[in-house]
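ok trying this again, last paste got cut off
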Amino acid sequence: MCFLRCSKDKTVGELITYDSTPYTLEYGNFPTPELPLDNKLTIEGIKLGRMLFYEKMLSKGNKLACAGCHAQKDGFSDLNTFSKGVDGLEGTRQAMPIINMAWHNNGFFWDGRAPKLRDQALKPIQDHLEMNETLDNVILKLSSTNLYKDQFTRSFVDGAINSVNISFALEQFMFTLVSNDAKYDRFLNGKTTLTDSEERGRNLFFKEFDPTGKTKGAECFHCHGGFNFSNDDYMNNGLDEDISFTDTGREKVSFLPEDRAKFKTPSLRNIAVTGPYMHDGRFSSLDDVLKHYNVGVNNSSTLDVLMQYNIQPGGLGLTKQDRDDVIAFLHTLTDDSFLTNPAFKDPN
C-alpha cells in the first residue's frame, strides 16, 4: 500500500510505502519481556508512537498531550497531586509513572482496568476529566495532516489512521521506556559502590522485620522486590480504615469485596522524582511514606497480610536515621540517563 504525498519529512513526489524495520529492545540484565506477538516493535511504529505521545491533537481543543501529565524529567509522571485536564478539571488519582511497561503483565492503571498497554493508551483520550476527546475526532484531525498520513503508511500494513493503530503505536513507544541504568544497577554490575548510608538503607530495604528486636528490617522488598521493584500486584497497604474508604480501587474492576481498597503496586524505579505518592498523592515526601509504613498503617478488612507487623504497637521501630538511610538507598534507583534520553523527548 503506497501513496504520493507531500510532508516535511520527504521531498515532493517521494513514494511513501509501508516499511517495517524490526526494532530490538535493549534491556540489559533484565529478564526477557513477553511482548505481544500481534504488535511487534518497529522503528517506524515507535517513531509514530513517540509523535502521538507528544501530540496535542489527541485532546479536545488541541490543548494537552500524553506528555502533559507524563513528563520525562519527572519519570514520565506528574508532580501535581491530581493532573488537570483540558477543561481545568482535576483527575481523581495521581498520574502513574510510565516506566518499564514491557514487564507489566497484570493490567494497567491503579485499578487495572486496562488489560493491555494498548487499552490504557486510549482511555485518557476519552476521559472527560483528562483529554476529553472522541476517537473519531482524533482520527479526523490526524487524517488532515500529510505528516501523520505518511507515518501511519510507513508503520502499518493497512496504513489506516484508526483507533487500533493509534493504540498500537503508543504501546510500541511506551514499551521502549526502559529504565535500567540507575546507580543501583551499576552497583550490581560492580561499576560503583554505595555510600555507608545507601548500604545501610539497602540492608533495611531487603530485610524482614524481626519480632525479637535483635535486628531491624523495613520489609520493603516483599512488595517492591525484583529487578523492577514491584510485584505487579494489587494490594491494600493500610492507607485507611474501612469506614474511611473513599476509593475502592481494584474492587471497581473485579467487583470482588476482597479487592476493596487495593491498588497497583508501582515500581520504585525513579521514585525520588515521581512524587507525590500513593494513588491519591497524599504523601508529598518519601519520609512521609516511610512514616506511614513505620507506624501509620491502618487496619482494615482487606489489609494485606504482609502488613501484620506494621500494625503492631510500635510498628517497625524505624528511627529517623533508619528512614534517612532507606531514602538514601531509594535515591540510588534514580536513572538520570532515562530522565534525559533524547530518544524519549518530544520529536518536534
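PB: full thing came through this time. Residues 183-332 form a domain with the Cytochrome Bc1 Complex; Chain D, domain 2 fold (CATH 1.10.760.10).
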